[in-house]
Hints:
The chain has helices at 14-27, 74-79, 93-100; strands at 31-32, 34-39, 45-50, 53-57, 62-68, 82-87, 113-114, 120-121, 127-139, 142-154, 161-163, 166-168. By secondary structure, it is an alpha+beta fold. The protein has one domain: Electron Transport, Fmn-binding Protein, Chain A (Pnp Oxidase, Chain A).
Amino acid sequence: MTETTARGQQGPPAHETFAAQFREAMSRFPSGVTIVTTTDDHGARWGFTASAFCSVSAEPPLVLACLAVSADSYRAFRTSSKWVVNILGEQHAPLAKRFATKGADKFAGDEFDTDADGLPVLPQAVASLVCRAEARHPAGDHLILIGEAVNVRLRDHTPLVYYARDFARLSA
Length: 172
């Protein structure tokens, strides 16, 4: 077993070793994969891939997603009043990679529909949650977006899973 602490490490600087091991530890936590989408004040579509997503509360129905402050879509999500969390199916791995790539034309394909509020929704997602902005919290190099789910769409697909820096299949 390898153990590293943030202080008192021999060899490479402790903060570099600890940071690398922290990232490795986080990669060992299997997670679902989402694409979070919104539009800005000019109607432009924005989105990002997030595996940092979870339920916060059942009453009211709150969820959170974490967005890097360096993301192309940061400004749009910092001010948007609504967004959509699209929980991806295993067939969406290429789409997840596109939305995770800085500078990519995220909406280059025709995968997304537009809902009644003008928000991009992935029609073949395992689930889509339309969320009204509830709160935003800066946290290190990320922004925590908390939204209240105001609409939910469910589909019968197998979810995409991310583990050890790669996509994995969920087995029964």
